[in-house]
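Repro:
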Amino acid sequence: GNGSVCEDVDECSQGIHDCSLSGRCQNTDGHFQCFCNTGFSGDGRRCDNINECNTSRHGCHGNATCTDLKGSHLCTCKAGFHGNGVACQDVDECSRATHDCPSNRRCQNT
């Protein structure tokens, strides 16, 4: 400003803030605030990855494996199951004829 009229400095758009790389900056009148991105926790200046796999919030199916990713996670169906990891269904190797049972034995899906 000119001493009579003051203008806000947008520290966020000018990159003169100290927010975490895993956070975001929000300009306010005369200042700024830092917030952590989704999947991270902290004060916005320091943001740590949340391991969703160690919480009940991951949403993976009981027959899926949860893999922690930076800021997120991945659900993958275990062997013998198919689906998107949030919903997994049994693969019936008998009806698909993908079993390795000897020809003189009856296949039973387990």
